[in-house]
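User: As part of a screening pipeline, I want to sanity-check one entry by hand. Below is the sequence and the SMILES for pyridoxal-5'-phosphate. Please return the complex as structure tokens so I can compare it with the automated output.
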Amino acid sequence: MIGYGRQHIDDHDIAAVTAALTGDMLTCGPAIEAFEAELCRISGAAHAVVVSNGTSALKLMYQAAGVGPGKRVGVPAVTFVATASQAMLLGAEVVLLDVDPQSLNLTPEILERCREHLDFVVPVHFAGRLVDLPGIAAVAARSTVGMTPRTRSGRPGAMIWRVRIGAAVMGVSAAPRRSHSIR
Ligand SMILES: Cc1ncc(COP(=O)(O)O)c(C=O)c1O
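Assistant: Here is the complex for your manual check:
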């Protein structure tokens, strides 16, 4: 169990930060390349791009997915503000979606009721409780809702099957892992 609101910083973390701070290159140095390579390894993604925080990652992911003016982006009503704000910054309309009262997550049933009104949906794993991604993807695949950029075949949502829980790769919440567990 990962405690909410409690940091997990050990000597290894401190040594890694110290090495980066005292190295020749403070930004874009070898630690970044190693981190990106490790993200690819654990996620199975072909490419990974590290940014400074989860908010920036969300914005990049939305831009890559085509979120912008004239698009409606469904986000859980219970989530971190950046899930919605980054879509708004890009000129999209944000639609707040109900969440299941037990899990506080978006469910396939909830998405089913509103899928025709959305261009994108952004499920978020609330406080470590996993969203039913295959179920959500199945609903998305039956409509125009895109969870991720369209694949080469043009089928929305198909790529979600390749996104592992916690993967920071064009996923449903691209926030990098930090010291607390709302993701
Ligand atoms: C679900 C979710 N998305 C995005 C963010 C934003 O991450 P950051 O604070 O690193 O910008 C957070 C931060 O808590 C979050 O919980």
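Points to compare against the pipeline: Helices lie at 11-21, 30-43, 54-65, 81-89, 108-114, 133-141. The first strand starts at residue 72 and ends at 76.
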